[in-house]
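User: Some background: our group keeps a shared notebook of sequences we're curious about, and every so often someone picks one and asks for a predicted structure to add to the entry. Today it's my turn. The entry only has the sequence so far, pasted here. Could you supply the structure so I can complete it?
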Amino acid sequence: MSSTYPTGPPASLRRDRTVDIARGISIVLIVLSHVIVGVWQSDAIETGAKGPLMPALYLVHIVVFAFLAGLFVERGVSRRGAARYLAERGALFVWLYLLWTLLQRGSRVLGGPFASTAASPVELLRLWRPEGQLWFLPWLLAATVLVALVHPWRSRRRGLALLGATAALALVVWGWEPNAVVVQGLALTPFFVAGVLVRGDRVVDLVSGSTVLRLGVVALAAGVVYVGVVAVGNFAMPTAASPDRSAIPLVWGVLGSTSGLVLVLAVSALLARLPGLGWLAFVGQRSMEIYLAHILVGVLVRAVLVDEGVQTDGAHLVVGTAVGVLAPLGIWWLAGRARMGWLFALPAPLQRRLRAV
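Assistant: Of course. Here's the predicted structure to add to the notebook entry:
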Protein backbone atom coordinates (compact mmCIF):
# COMPACT_ATOMS: atom_id res chain seq x y z
CA MET A 1 0.00 0.00 0.00
CA SER A 2 1.44 3.38 -0.95
CA SER A 3 1.82 6.07 1.64
CA THR A 4 -0.59 8.99 1.68
CA TYR A 5 2.49 11.20 1.81
CA PRO A 6 5.11 10.18 -0.80
CA THR A 7 7.97 11.55 1.27
CA GLY A 8 6.48 10.76 4.68
CA PRO A 9 3.96 12.71 6.73
CA PRO A 10 4.50 16.42 7.34
CA ALA A 11 6.62 17.17 10.37
CA SER A 12 3.64 18.76 12.09
CA LEU A 13 1.84 15.39 12.01
CA ARG A 14 4.72 13.31 13.32
CA ARG A 15 5.02 12.73 17.04
CA ASP A 16 7.88 14.81 18.36
CA ARG A 17 8.83 14.74 22.03
CA THR A 18 10.61 18.12 22.14
CA VAL A 19 7.72 20.02 23.72
CA ASP A 20 6.96 17.28 26.24
CA ILE A 21 10.63 16.99 27.22
CA ALA A 22 10.88 20.78 27.58
CA ARG A 23 7.84 20.67 29.87
CA GLY A 24 9.47 17.84 31.81
CA ILE A 25 12.71 19.77 32.29
CA SER A 26 10.78 22.88 33.28
CA ILE A 27 8.62 21.18 35.92
CA VAL A 28 11.61 19.39 37.46
CA LEU A 29 13.40 22.74 37.76
CA ILE A 30 10.28 24.31 39.27
CA VAL A 31 10.02 21.57 41.89
CA LEU A 32 13.74 21.88 42.68
CA SER A 33 13.49 25.64 43.11
CA HIS A 34 10.56 25.33 45.51
CA VAL A 35 12.41 22.66 47.49
CA ILE A 36 15.32 25.09 47.77
CA VAL A 37 13.01 27.82 49.05
CA GLY A 38 11.56 25.41 51.62
CA VAL A 39 15.03 24.42 52.79
CA TRP A 40 16.06 28.05 53.13
CA GLN A 41 13.00 28.85 55.22
CA SER A 42 13.45 25.89 57.57
CA ASP A 43 15.32 26.52 60.80
CA ALA A 44 15.73 22.78 61.34
CA ILE A 45 18.01 22.26 58.32
CA GLU A 46 21.69 23.13 58.15
CA THR A 47 21.82 24.93 54.84
CA GLY A 48 24.75 26.22 52.90
CA ALA A 49 22.82 26.31 49.66
CA LYS A 50 22.20 30.03 49.59
CA GLY A 51 24.00 30.65 46.35
CA PRO A 52 23.19 31.39 42.72
CA LEU A 53 21.15 28.23 42.06
CA MET A 54 17.73 29.45 43.14
CA PRO A 55 17.90 32.81 41.30
CA ALA A 56 19.27 31.00 38.23
CA LEU A 57 16.29 28.64 38.25
CA TYR A 58 13.74 31.41 38.77
CA LEU A 59 15.27 33.20 35.81
CA VAL A 60 14.17 30.52 33.37
CA HIS A 61 11.90 27.68 34.56
CA ILE A 62 8.57 29.47 34.64
CA VAL A 63 9.45 31.36 31.45
CA VAL A 64 9.71 28.02 29.64
CA PHE A 65 6.39 26.95 31.16
CA ALA A 66 4.73 30.16 29.92
CA PHE A 67 6.13 29.88 26.39
CA LEU A 68 5.07 26.26 26.06
CA ALA A 69 1.57 27.09 27.35
CA GLY A 70 1.06 29.38 24.37
CA LEU A 71 2.10 26.97 21.63
CA PHE A 72 -1.29 25.35 21.04
CA VAL A 73 -3.70 28.18 21.84
CA GLU A 74 -4.33 29.11 18.20
CA ARG A 75 -5.15 25.50 17.37
CA GLY A 76 -7.61 25.31 20.26
CA VAL A 77 -9.34 28.56 19.31
CA SER A 78 -9.50 27.58 15.63
CA ARG A 79 -10.99 24.18 16.37
CA ARG A 80 -13.56 25.14 19.00
CA GLY A 81 -14.08 28.84 18.51
CA ALA A 82 -12.99 31.56 20.93
CA ALA A 83 -16.13 31.45 23.09
CA ARG A 84 -16.15 27.68 23.65
CA TYR A 85 -12.38 27.53 24.08
CA LEU A 86 -12.43 30.28 26.71
CA ALA A 87 -15.39 28.71 28.49
CA GLU A 88 -13.58 25.38 28.74
CA ARG A 89 -10.22 26.84 29.77
CA GLY A 90 -11.81 29.36 32.11
CA ALA A 91 -13.89 26.74 33.90
CA LEU A 92 -10.86 24.47 34.27
CA PHE A 93 -8.49 27.13 35.58
CA VAL A 94 -11.04 28.62 37.98
CA TRP A 95 -11.91 25.16 39.32
CA LEU A 96 -8.28 24.16 39.84
CA TYR A 97 -7.44 27.50 41.43
CA LEU A 98 -10.31 27.33 43.93
CA LEU A 99 -9.83 23.65 44.73
CA TRP A 100 -6.08 23.76 45.25
CA THR A 101 -6.28 27.03 47.16
CA LEU A 102 -8.66 25.27 49.55
CA LEU A 103 -6.36 22.25 49.83
CA GLN A 104 -3.07 24.10 50.08
CA ARG A 105 -4.15 27.04 52.22
CA GLY A 106 -6.48 24.82 54.22
CA SER A 107 -3.54 22.61 55.17
CA ARG A 108 -1.84 25.66 56.65
CA VAL A 109 -4.98 26.43 58.63
CA LEU A 110 -4.94 22.90 60.05
CA GLY A 111 -1.27 23.16 61.06
CA GLY A 112 0.67 19.98 61.83
CA PRO A 113 3.54 19.67 59.35
CA PHE A 114 2.34 22.94 57.83
CA ALA A 115 2.46 24.88 61.10
CA SER A 116 5.63 26.78 60.14
CA THR A 117 3.53 28.79 57.67
CA ALA A 118 0.23 28.70 59.56
CA ALA A 119 -2.78 30.58 58.17
CA SER A 120 -6.02 31.76 59.74
CA PRO A 121 -9.40 30.54 58.44
CA VAL A 122 -10.09 34.06 57.17
CA GLU A 123 -7.30 33.65 54.64
CA LEU A 124 -9.34 30.98 52.87
CA LEU A 125 -11.56 33.83 51.65
CA ARG A 126 -8.72 36.00 50.35
CA LEU A 127 -8.80 34.50 46.89
CA TRP A 128 -7.28 37.60 45.33
CA ARG A 129 -4.03 36.67 47.07
CA PRO A 130 -2.78 33.51 45.33
CA GLU A 131 -1.44 30.66 47.44
CA GLY A 132 2.16 29.82 46.62
CA GLN A 133 2.60 28.63 43.05
CA LEU A 134 -1.12 28.89 42.23
CA TRP A 135 -0.73 32.45 40.93
CA PHE A 136 0.13 30.87 37.57
CA LEU A 137 -3.47 29.76 36.97
CA PRO A 138 -5.28 33.14 37.05
CA TRP A 139 -2.45 34.75 35.12
CA LEU A 140 -2.62 32.01 32.47
CA LEU A 141 -6.38 32.43 32.21
CA ALA A 142 -6.03 36.21 31.74
CA ALA A 143 -3.29 35.74 29.12
CA THR A 144 -5.43 33.18 27.29
CA VAL A 145 -8.42 35.53 27.26
CA LEU A 146 -6.19 38.29 25.88
CA VAL A 147 -4.88 36.33 22.90
CA ALA A 148 -8.21 34.62 22.20
CA LEU A 149 -9.86 38.04 21.87
CA VAL A 150 -7.05 39.79 19.99
CA HIS A 151 -6.22 36.90 17.62
CA PRO A 152 -2.58 38.00 17.17
CA TRP A 153 -2.00 35.25 14.60
CA ARG A 154 -4.29 36.90 12.04
CA SER A 155 -1.66 39.37 10.86
CA ARG A 156 2.01 40.05 11.38
CA ARG A 157 1.28 43.62 12.43
CA ARG A 158 -1.27 42.56 15.04
CA GLY A 159 1.05 39.90 16.43
CA LEU A 160 4.04 42.22 16.71
CA ALA A 161 1.88 44.94 18.27
CA LEU A 162 0.64 42.60 21.00
CA LEU A 163 4.12 41.21 21.57
CA GLY A 164 5.54 44.73 21.87
CA ALA A 165 2.79 45.92 24.21
CA THR A 166 3.13 42.93 26.54
CA ALA A 167 6.92 43.25 26.47
CA ALA A 168 6.68 46.89 27.54
CA LEU A 169 4.34 45.92 30.37
CA ALA A 170 6.69 43.12 31.38
CA LEU A 171 9.55 45.57 31.82
CA VAL A 172 7.40 47.62 34.20
CA VAL A 173 6.58 44.66 36.46
CA TRP A 174 9.75 42.54 36.00
CA GLY A 175 11.17 41.55 39.37
CA TRP A 176 8.04 42.62 41.25
CA GLU A 177 6.13 40.07 43.35
CA PRO A 178 2.80 41.70 44.29
CA ASN A 179 0.97 38.52 45.44
CA ALA A 180 -2.19 39.50 43.59
CA VAL A 181 -4.09 37.42 41.04
CA VAL A 182 -3.27 38.15 37.39
CA VAL A 183 -0.77 40.88 38.29
CA GLN A 184 1.71 38.33 39.58
CA GLY A 185 2.89 36.79 36.35
CA LEU A 186 2.47 39.74 33.99
CA ALA A 187 6.20 39.65 33.23
CA LEU A 188 5.64 36.26 31.58
CA THR A 189 3.01 37.50 29.14
CA PRO A 190 5.34 38.30 26.20
CA PHE A 191 6.79 34.79 26.41
CA PHE A 192 3.27 33.35 26.30
CA VAL A 193 2.40 35.58 23.34
CA ALA A 194 5.63 34.50 21.64
CA GLY A 195 4.57 30.88 22.10
CA VAL A 196 1.17 31.66 20.58
CA LEU A 197 2.81 33.28 17.54
CA VAL A 198 5.44 30.58 17.07
CA ARG A 199 2.91 27.70 17.36
CA GLY A 200 3.61 24.12 18.29
CA ASP A 201 3.57 22.77 14.73
CA ARG A 202 6.24 25.27 13.71
CA VAL A 203 8.41 24.20 16.61
CA VAL A 204 8.12 20.61 15.40
CA ASP A 205 8.93 21.66 11.82
CA LEU A 206 11.95 23.66 12.96
CA VAL A 207 13.27 20.88 15.16
CA SER A 208 12.71 18.20 12.54
CA GLY A 209 14.53 20.26 9.92
CA SER A 210 17.54 21.00 12.13
CA THR A 211 20.66 18.90 12.32
CA VAL A 212 22.22 17.81 15.59
CA LEU A 213 25.11 20.15 14.85
CA ARG A 214 22.83 23.15 14.41
CA LEU A 215 20.90 22.38 17.59
CA GLY A 216 24.17 21.88 19.45
CA VAL A 217 25.51 25.24 18.30
CA VAL A 218 22.28 26.97 19.36
CA ALA A 219 22.35 25.23 22.75
CA LEU A 220 26.00 26.16 23.26
CA ALA A 221 25.50 29.80 22.32
CA ALA A 222 22.39 30.17 24.48
CA GLY A 223 24.12 28.35 27.33
CA VAL A 224 27.12 30.68 27.22
CA VAL A 225 24.84 33.73 27.43
CA TYR A 226 22.72 32.22 30.21
CA VAL A 227 25.71 31.14 32.30
CA GLY A 228 27.28 34.55 31.72
CA VAL A 229 24.20 36.31 33.08
CA VAL A 230 24.10 34.02 36.11
CA ALA A 231 27.83 34.55 36.69
CA VAL A 232 27.40 38.32 36.61
CA GLY A 233 24.66 37.88 39.18
CA ASN A 234 23.22 41.38 38.89
CA PHE A 235 19.92 40.40 37.31
CA ALA A 236 16.23 40.72 38.17
CA MET A 237 14.06 37.61 38.11
CA PRO A 238 10.80 37.90 36.15
CA THR A 239 8.26 36.79 38.78
CA ALA A 240 10.21 36.72 42.05
CA ALA A 241 10.99 39.74 44.19
CA SER A 242 14.31 41.19 43.08
CA PRO A 243 16.24 43.64 45.28
CA ASP A 244 17.32 45.83 42.35
CA ARG A 245 14.88 46.58 39.54
CA SER A 246 16.87 49.32 37.86
CA ALA A 247 17.69 49.28 34.14
CA ILE A 248 20.84 47.14 34.22
CA PRO A 249 19.38 44.25 36.28
CA LEU A 250 16.28 44.34 34.07
CA VAL A 251 18.35 44.04 30.89
CA TRP A 252 20.40 41.18 32.37
CA GLY A 253 17.22 39.49 33.57
CA VAL A 254 15.47 39.65 30.19
CA LEU A 255 18.64 38.43 28.46
CA GLY A 256 19.02 35.58 30.95
CA SER A 257 15.40 34.47 30.69
CA THR A 258 15.39 34.61 26.89
CA SER A 259 18.69 32.75 26.52
CA GLY A 260 17.58 30.22 29.14
CA LEU A 261 14.38 29.58 27.19
CA VAL A 262 16.34 28.98 23.98
CA LEU A 263 18.77 26.75 25.88
CA VAL A 264 16.02 24.53 27.30
CA LEU A 265 14.28 24.25 23.92
CA ALA A 266 17.51 23.36 22.09
CA VAL A 267 18.55 20.82 24.72
CA SER A 268 15.04 19.33 24.64
CA ALA A 269 15.24 18.97 20.87
CA LEU A 270 18.55 17.14 21.22
CA LEU A 271 17.25 14.89 23.99
CA ALA A 272 14.14 14.08 21.93
CA ARG A 273 16.41 12.27 19.46
CA LEU A 274 17.80 9.97 22.12
CA PRO A 275 16.17 6.68 23.14
CA GLY A 276 15.14 5.93 26.70
CA LEU A 277 13.79 9.36 27.61
CA GLY A 278 10.12 8.55 27.35
CA TRP A 279 9.89 8.96 31.12
CA LEU A 280 10.92 12.63 30.87
CA ALA A 281 8.37 13.23 28.12
CA PHE A 282 5.73 11.58 30.32
CA VAL A 283 6.69 13.87 33.21
CA GLY A 284 6.17 16.77 30.82
CA GLN A 285 2.76 15.48 29.76
CA ARG A 286 1.69 15.43 33.42
CA SER A 287 3.45 18.69 34.34
CA MET A 288 0.29 20.49 35.47
CA GLU A 289 -0.59 17.73 37.93
CA ILE A 290 2.93 17.93 39.34
CA TYR A 291 2.73 21.72 39.48
CA LEU A 292 -0.49 21.64 41.46
CA ALA A 293 0.48 19.01 44.03
CA HIS A 294 4.22 19.36 44.55
CA ILE A 295 4.11 22.06 47.24
CA LEU A 296 1.95 20.01 49.60
CA VAL A 297 4.12 16.96 48.91
CA GLY A 298 7.29 18.96 49.49
CA VAL A 299 6.18 20.18 52.91
CA LEU A 300 5.38 16.64 54.03
CA VAL A 301 8.67 15.25 52.70
CA ARG A 302 10.65 17.95 54.46
CA ALA A 303 8.80 17.26 57.73
CA VAL A 304 9.52 13.52 57.48
CA LEU A 305 13.20 14.09 56.75
CA VAL A 306 13.56 16.49 59.66
CA ASP A 307 11.82 14.03 61.99
CA GLU A 308 14.30 11.37 60.85
CA GLY A 309 17.19 13.66 61.73
CA VAL A 310 18.22 14.52 58.17
CA GLN A 311 19.63 18.03 58.33
CA THR A 312 21.92 18.33 55.31
CA ASP A 313 20.50 20.48 52.56
CA GLY A 314 21.84 18.20 49.81
CA ALA A 315 19.73 15.27 51.00
CA HIS A 316 16.67 17.48 51.24
CA LEU A 317 17.17 18.83 47.71
CA VAL A 318 17.64 15.41 46.11
CA VAL A 319 14.90 13.57 48.00
CA GLY A 320 12.52 16.53 47.98
CA THR A 321 12.81 17.00 44.23
CA ALA A 322 12.49 13.30 43.40
CA VAL A 323 9.46 12.78 45.63
CA GLY A 324 8.04 16.16 44.59
CA VAL A 325 7.90 14.91 41.01
CA LEU A 326 6.98 11.27 41.58
CA ALA A 327 4.40 11.58 44.37
CA PRO A 328 2.06 13.88 42.39
CA LEU A 329 2.21 11.36 39.55
CA GLY A 330 1.15 8.69 42.02
CA ILE A 331 -1.65 10.90 43.32
CA TRP A 332 -2.84 11.53 39.75
CA TRP A 333 -2.78 7.79 39.01
CA LEU A 334 -4.69 6.91 42.16
CA ALA A 335 -7.18 9.74 41.64
CA GLY A 336 -8.06 8.41 38.22
CA ARG A 337 -8.79 4.97 39.63
CA ALA A 338 -10.65 6.21 42.70
CA ARG A 339 -13.03 8.38 40.68
CA MET A 340 -11.32 11.50 42.00
CA GLY A 341 -10.14 12.81 38.67
CA TRP A 342 -11.69 16.13 39.66
CA LEU A 343 -8.49 16.81 41.61
CA PHE A 344 -6.80 17.68 38.32
CA ALA A 345 -9.69 18.19 35.89
CA LEU A 346 -13.20 19.59 35.80
CA PRO A 347 -15.76 17.36 37.53
CA ALA A 348 -17.65 15.23 35.02
CA PRO A 349 -21.02 17.04 35.51
CA LEU A 350 -19.39 20.38 34.68
CA GLN A 351 -17.71 18.89 31.63
CA ARG A 352 -21.06 17.55 30.40
CA ARG A 353 -22.72 20.91 30.97
CA LEU A 354 -20.04 22.70 28.99
CA ARG A 355 -20.36 20.24 26.11
CA ALA A 356 -24.12 20.77 26.07
CA VAL A 357 -23.84 24.54 25.74
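Suggested note for the entry: Confidence is low (pLDDT under 50) at residues 1-14. The first helix runs from residue 18 to 41.
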